[in-house]
Amino acid sequence: MNGRAGIGMPADGTKQAVRAAMAAPYWNPRPLEEQPSRELLTRAWNGDPPRA
Predict the structure, then answer these.
(1) Using an 8 Å Cβ cutoff, are 41 and 17 in contact?
(2) What share of the chain is helix, strand, coil (3-state, %, to 5)?
(3) Structure pTM?
(4) What pLDDT score does 46 carry?
(5) What is the C-alpha separation between 11 and 27, in angstroms, rounded?
(6) What separation in angstroms does the CA of 41 have from each of 1, 21, 35?
(7) Is 10 helix (H, G, I), strand (E, B) or coil?
(8) Which residues neighbour 13 within 8 Å (Cβ) at sequence distance 6 or greater?
(9) Contact criterion met (CB below 8 Å) for 48 and 5
(10) What does the DSSP 8-state code read for residue 48?
(11) Each residue of 2-49: pLDDT tens digit?
(12) Which of 13, 17, 28, 34 could form a disulfide bond with 9, CB atoms 3.0-4.6 angstroms apart?
């Protein structure tokens, strides 16, 4: 098992992680957006590389 699933993160953990990040944003040169963040974490959960 690769990605976040391989370290025990449940499938719905990506949704919870995005909600937590959106609730407590920090400075970033790019605005924090829910859908792209969810896609990034889902790809990580699956063990897929990030997209540019």
Answers:
(1) yes
(2) 55, 0, 45
(3) 0.70
(4) 83
(5) 27
(6) 16, 11, 10
(7) coil
(8) 4, 45
(9) no
(10) P
(11) 666 566 778 788 888 899 989 988 888 888 899 999 898 888 888 888
(12) 13
